[in-house]
From TrEMBL:
PROSITE patterns: PEP_ENZYMES_2. Its EC number is 2.7.9.1. The active site is at H427, C803. It comes from Yoonia litorea. The keyword Metal-binding applies. Its cofactor is Mg(2+). Belongs to the PEP-utilizing enzyme family. It comes from the Bacteria. This is Pyruvate, phosphate dikinase. It is an enzyme of class 2 (transferase). Keywords: Kinase, Magnesium, Metal-binding, Pyruvate, Transferase.
Length: 843
């Protein structure tokens, strides 16, 4: 049977009410009344009633006013379905008029009474009669003269005296609030917060509980947690009418006093201990029965406590975690609900320093928010300047057109990175996320002038090398100077919430980690292993680049092997460090992937250096470097193709992995190693590499007499590998879908160049979203599903995962769960977000 709702409902414990008909505020007031809280008489207008009011059909005013008695003073407040959708501002003291004013003068004194009346006229003029706010300033000194002038202005502007009867005032207030909800700005604002286009507005009309007795009178708000930290704390303010009238000033605002006992001045706790205790008990009741931390609006009316309203406490991301966990720990909500209540994206805010939301932002330029968090530093334009700056202990921001693997050391040294070019999977973005380094890429309005050592922002302002700027990788903004920051907070509540999430989720979460530092971050965030270790970054460190170049210049296989033998111990040490950090877990090492030219210099000075290093004449070096250049390096000799053409590289890497396993094994650390072959497109590639890797394992095993626990798998990142997954899986223990390259190759879209036109493509609806950012389920996803299905036909227990930049996103996790994948792998800082998201999807 369907409940019928009336346009006007006097709120009682049993009145028929619903948030979808009367809005969240009205429903909450009913719940407060049911909890026996002293809520003043309140009437709720349904969404329909408000909608009618907007088109001029006001509700029956006699019926509306009847519950409030003669000459009431009323407040009108919005009640949208979800309080976060907002609504027009409240209008207080409706019913105020000349007669009331005289009464108030006797009670509060002339100045306070005048101020009260003028404030009402002011808000009525601006928000109801829609008059020019500039004409209705509150003078510093509120007196009869000022009030008279304000009344005269009202009359002049509207050709009517200020209305004295409550019916007229209330009717106008209802009409204007109803119309404000239909305005374009209000509509856009709430739609941005997820409200549907036809979201309704309810209104609540409530008796103002501000009596004129001799006892304590005043109004206040209180909440019982800190909005920033989420820790229990009594916070709020109370404004005493008496203190205001007698000018016993407590704090900056007249009549405002502390809530809790305070040595600095009077407090509500001292002034009205019983009412204060009652207020505390109401807070507790709200928490237990409304299952939420509420901000309570209250008044004291001749000493009697009245509860006017309660709304969910506004909270920072950090507080939202702390509050949800505390509610579950106190058994007010189940753990599942605590896990559901925290927005996963909010976690990533907690993992990084952020610009204080209260701080002023002076924006130089905007780009793509590629790696969250904010950091300030002096501008540097090259990787070597960044290293020099770090050596001096000065934080710096590395500003580049785009970054290349050669910039890696500079990125390590910088506290943030800003590039003119690139998208979410560009080099700078991938490395930035891996390092947890705030990063803004694709700031195309930026101009970098290396010669003059200046950068210029969108509005033409320019900044010299050495000046301080701030990169906000959460919003994509670059700011002048160094605004106030909030520190990252990995507190106990955060750990607890994620432990609970792990109990509910049904898909694994690993990290993409290249260095021991990355691996440590991944371990700290309880990643279940490493899903992708990109080994090439290891070759740019220290003096390895030089050795790498010698290897590239080696003529014969033996020469190459000899040079690689010098890299072997370094690489072995890398793996050993990773294995020790990830003790007992799986580590998936991807064999060398990039084209070799990335290790070679492109400018004259670099070529001269190289010639010196490899002891060859400059023309010969230049020629060899040119010969290695490819028209399309991302589709050229990289990945497994390089592994087959120059097999010594993979041999060395396999040996380093196995010897590292032996070394950590001797220390009692068990590791389950996985070796992954990149850019495979044909089964034979896997066969060739597998036989060599197995041979190396055999040799290491024979020498060490230690059994090696390893698996060999394939990184599926070409469309052909998806199509041929059944025969590829015959030789592969696992298939890991590299969605960066797979997206690039499925679309035929360069991941490094797409940034140039991506926004225009998205704007015109060619692509719903940037496919490098949001996994393209219907295209790339189709290929992945096909690959997974075909892989399973030849090897039913093949381990399936995803390791591109999409890995931590909600859409990709949902997709992988649906397809029965074993795990997702994402950058270390996204691991907590992925753990929570996976749990929410499972619940
Ligand atoms: C991929 O292609 O999805 C991947 C993870 O590898 P990379 O980004 O190193 O090419
Ligand atoms: Mg790839």
């Amino acid at each position: 049977q369907q409940t019928t709702y009336k346009p006007l409902t006097l709120i009682t414990p049993t009145a028929a009410m619903s948030p979808a008909v009367h809005g969240g505020r009205a429903k909450c007031l009913q719940r407060l009344i049911r909890l026996d809280m002293p809520v003043p008489v309140t009437v709720a207008l349904s969404f329909d009633a408000v909608h009618e009011a907007a088109i001029g059909n006001l509700p029956d005013m006699d019926e509306l006013l009847a519950p409030f008695g003669d000459a009431p003073l009323l407040s009108v407040r919005p009640s949208s379905q979800d309080p976060d959708w907002g609504g027009p501002g409240a209008i207080l003291n409706v019913g105020m008029n000349d007669a009331r004013y005289v009464e108030l003068i006797n009670w509060l004194g002339e100045e306070t009474a005048t101020k009260l009346y003028m404030r009402f006229v002011q808000s009525y003029a601006i928000h109801v009669a829609r008059l020019d706010p500039d004409e209705f300033h509150m003078p510093d000194q509120a007196d009869a003269k000022g009030l008279k002038a304000m009344m005269a202005t009202f009359e002049y502007e509207t050709d009517m005296p200020f209305p004295q009867d409550v019916e007229t005032q209330l009717a106008e207030v209802l009409r204007s609030m109803a119309r404000a909800w239909d305005g374009t700005t209000a509509r856009l604002l709430r739609q941005a917060k997820g409200a549907p286009a036809d979201a309704g507005l309810g209104l609540v009309v409530q008796a103002m509980a501000s009596g004129t007795g001799q006892g304590e009178c005043g109004q206040g708000v209180v909440q019982f947690v800190d909005s920033v930290t989420g820790q229990p704390k009594i916070i709020g303010r109370y404004v005493s009418s008496h203190l205001a009238a007698t000018r016993e000033i407590g704090r900056e605002t007249e009549g405002a006093i502390y809530l809790t006992r305070d040595t600095r001045g009077p407090s509500l706790e001292d002034l009205c201990p019983d009412q204060f205790a009652q207020l505390i008990s109401y807070g507790d009741l709200c928490r237990k029965r409304l299952r939420e931390e509420m901000e309570i609006k209250f008044t004291l009316q001749d000493g009697a406590l009245r509860i006017l309203d309660a709304v969910r406490v506004q909270r920072s991301s950090r507080a939202s975690v702390r509050i949800a966990v505390a509610l579950a720990e106190d058994q007010i909500i189940p753990r599942e609900e605590a896990v559901m209540r925290v927005e996963p994206a909010a976690l990533s805010e907690l993992l990084h320093r952020q610009v204080d939301p209260q701080a002023a932002r002076d924006v130089i330029v905007r780009g793509i928010a590629a790696s969250p968090g904010a950091a300030s530093g002096r501008i540097v334009l090259t990787a070597s300047e960044a290293q020099a700056s770090a050596a001096r202990g000065e934080p710096c921001v590395l500003v580049r057109r785009e970054t290349t693997p050669e910039d890696i050391r500079g990125m390590h040294a910088a506290s943030a990175v800003l590039t003119m070019r690139g998208g979410v999977t560009s080099h700078a973005a991938v490395i930035g996320r891996g390092l947890g380094l705030p990063c803004v890429v694709g700031a195309s309005d930026l101009v970098i002038d290396r010669k003059s050592g200046r950068i210029t922002g969108a509005d033409g302002r320019s900044f010299a090398v050495g000046e301080t700027i701030t990169v906000d990788g959460t919003t994509g903004q670059v700011l002048v100077g160094e605004p106030k920051m909030l520190e990252a907070a990995l507190d106990g509540a955060f750990q607890t919430l994620l432990d609970w999430a792990d109990d509910f989720r049904d898909i694994g979460v690993r990290a993409n980690a290249d260095t021991p530092a990355d691996a440590q971050t991944a371990a700290n965030f309880a990643a279940e292993g490493i899903g992708l270790c990109r080994t090439e970054h290891m070759f740019f460190e220290g003096d390895r680049l030089g050795v790498m170049r010698e290897m590239i210049f080696a003529e014969e296989s033996d020469d190459r092997r000899a040079v690689l033998d010098r890299l072997l111990p370094m690489q072995r040490a890398d793996f050993q460090a990773l294995f020790e950090i990830m003790a007992g877990k799986s580590v998936c090492v991807r064999l060398f992937d990039p084209p070799l030219h990335e290790f070679l210099p492109s400018d004259k000075a670099g070529l001269r250096d190289l010639a010196e290093q490899v002891a060859l004449p400059l023309p010969e070096v230049t020629e060899r470097v040119h010969a290695l250049a490819e028209y399309n390096p991302m589709l050229g000799m990289r990945g497994v193709r390089l592994g087959i053409a120059l097999p010594e590289i993979y041999d060395m890497q396999a040996r380093a992995i196995f010897e590292a396993m032996v070394a950590v094994g001797q220390k009692g650390v068990a590791i389950s190693a996985e070796i992954m072959i990149p850019l495979v497109s044909a089964m034979r590639e896997v066969e060739l590499i597998k036989s060599r890797v197995d041979a190396v394992a055999h040799a290491v095993r024979a020498k060490s007499r230690i059994d090696l626990d390893y698996r060999l798998g394939v990184m599926v990142e070409t469309p052909r590998a998806c199509l041929r997954a059944h025969d590829i899986a015959e030789h592969a223990d696992f298939l890991s879908f590299g969605t960066n390259d797979l997206t690039q190759m499925t679309y035929g879209l360069s991941r490094d160049d797409a940034g140039r036109f991506m926004s225009s493509y998205v704007q015109q609806g060619v692509y719903a979203e940037d496919p490098f950012h949001t996994l393209d389920i219907e295209g790339v996803g189709e290929l992945i599903a096909l690959g997974a299905e075909r892989g399973r036909t030849s090897r039913p227990d093949v381990v399936l995962s995803i390791c591109g930049e999409h890995g931590g996103s909600r859409a990709a996790i949902a997709f992988c769960r649906e397809k029965g994948f074993d795990y997702v792998s994402c950058s270390p800082f996204r691991v907590p977000v992925a753990r929570l998201t996976a749990a929410q999807l499972a619940l």
